[in-house]
Design goal:
The protein contains 16 helices and 2 strands. The chain is an all-alpha fold.
């Protein structure tokens, strides 16, 4: 018989506080809370038995993977210029994190109609972003090559965070994960985003010579370290080091992410314990649980499935 999800063993007051705190990470200011439980029966872009639904339910994985993805994005000069000059990350990092977390949850779990509408909104914003890098290289945020890189780095970050700190996945599961992201990637205009581990590896190899160091990467890490991302705040420094840890070693070397950013073994063990606990923490406000309800599945669908593995 599968073990009960850890959340069922927490005292109700503590579970409610955690539920509220995690919900805030997905709640941009001035926007009504999203109800992922409606409309009843409407499918998402990915299926509830997908690898993606298992990976994205974990807020610790999302934080670690998201930071790693941004590090990789900022290593590409055109993406770096677009992100740094045309977003609110420098002035409102937590708000930017919340908007990104909501978009990620909607893309994976949300009703298809709302996910498509949100992606269309993001595409309209990208269509207005363009300019030149400090070296004079022109760019547009909706260039397919840049969209492919952003989609690839995001998928890589989340998958590697899960594999490193929650549970390793087989090669076949890794391929499934990348393939499952294709419908959303195509809606974003990333028609060349990798659909397998081999395609991801090939893209990283092609992009390696184009990645360059910048003080902006270190400024980004400083901003994230100072950002009050409760309930992750007590372990925030460790989680940031964990994000740097999963960035490929050649990229870390190019960016100057040296031994100061190393994740000591004792911290890695603690991060793994935190991430694995979060993976068993079933919160009623989460997009994953609400989406299970929308599709007529029990709240513990993803958690019982994990325990039975």
């Amino acid at each position: 018989m599968p073990a009960l999800p850890e959340s069922l063993l927490l005292p109700p007051p503590l579970r409610r506080r955690l539920d509220a705190a995690v919900a805030q990470l997905y709640q941009p200011e001035g926007r009504a809370p999203e109800d992922f439980s409606r409309p009843r029966g409407e499918p998402a872009l990915t299926a509830p038995d997908s690898v993606s639904w298992r990976v994205f339910k974990n807020p610790v994985v999302l934080f670690i993977g998201g930071v790693a993805a941004v590090i990789l994005e900022l290593a590409e000069p055109r993406v770096r210029t677009g992100v740094w000059e045309h977003s609110s990350f420098r002035t409102q990092p937590l708000e930017r994190l919340r908007r990104t977390a909501l978009a990620t949850a909607m893309t994976v779990y949300g009703p298809r109609s709302r996910a498509e509408a949100l992606i269309a909104q993001v595409n309209r914003l990208h269509g207005r972003v363009g300019g030149s890098t400090p070296d004079g290289v022109p760019y547009r945020a909706d260039e397919p090559e840049l969209l492919d890189w952003v989609q690839a780095t995001a998928a890589f970050g989340f998958l590697e965070a899960h594999c490193a700190f929650v549970q390793p996945l087989s090669h076949a599961e890794r391929d499934r994960f990348y393939a499952e992201g294709q419908p959303a990637a195509h809606l974003y205009g990333a028609t060349g985003a990798p659909s397998s581990q081999a395609e991801l590896d090939a893209l990283f190899q092609r992009m390696q010579p184009r990645l360059v160091a910048s003080p902006i990467v270190h400024e980004f890490l400083r901003i994230v370290a100072e950002m009050p991302a409760a309930p992750l705040r007590p372990a925030q420094a460790w989680l940031i080091r964990a994000a740097v840890h999963i960035v490929p070693a050649p990229v870390r070397s190019v960016l100057g992410l040296d031994a100061r950013w190393a994740l000591p073994p004792w911290q890695a063990r603690l991060v793994r314990r935190i991430a694995q606990s979060a993976d068993r923490l079933m919160l009623s406000s989460s997009a994953a649980v609400q989406s299970c309800r929308r599709l007529g599945l029990p709240d513990d669908h993803l958690y019982a499935a994990r325990a039975a593995r």
